[in-house]
User: What shape does this take?
Amino acid sequence: MNSSDINTLANSMLVGKVSGNEHASKRVRPFTVDTAGKIVELPIMEAPDRIQQTATLDDVESFISYVNEFKTPTSRIFVKYEANGTFVAVLDYHTKDKPSFGTHRVHLPLKMTPEFKAWHDINGRQMNQVAFAEFLEDNVSVVKKPCAADLLQVARTLTSKKEVKFTGGVRLDNGDVNLAYSEESSSTAGKKGNLEIPTKLELFVPVFEGSIPTAVGLHFRHRINDCVLTFEVKIMQLDRLIKGVIDTTAKQIHDETAVDVFKGALG
Assistant: This one.
């Protein structure tokens, strides 16, 4: 049997009806040719014999739900700590006795929540008093210490005292700093005052989408150069914080899926 004969036979096994030049269906029935040149029709597979799918999800809850829906006794999860951390679940992973294709996977690249990202984006950046006051007003909701009311009062004072000269600061017994200033506006020129500000802040916020809220410590620093006040926020031990949140998220995923989580990446 030559190639022309095989093509003719294959065309005769098209599934569906032909009307004019339009094919109602072009699915070909699977077949093989035996050593005698005889065509042997094979059964049509109605569905794939395995899942070949890679999904990428946006938050921890979705990842957990997906794993729980499709997990098998051989499923495994891997977590890579680079950048913000990435989880990869291989739902059809192999065992030591039986290899598997490992083609059904779900990825979770951890994404910072908008609430945490706002503070992360100003980490280590100098801000003038008005810009920082406006930032505080927009993001005070996640501040646990000091209380929001006290911090808002600081923000309002900074906003209202635009035409002032700051002359120095004294550290108080409670750890806060008392800043001395004199006003320069025409109506209150020479008037002196003090502004008490904290030296540390504490947030209570989920770091990643779907992660458990955690305490985040911040250094709250100020500088006075030529009587001009600027502020800087520095997240305490940021790398350790991120690693700790990834560890906590790994435990959360394991506890809620009962699937083993391994540290490392697939090759």
User: Anything to note?
Assistant: Helices lie at 3-12, 60-70, 114-121, 129-139, 148-160, 238-257.
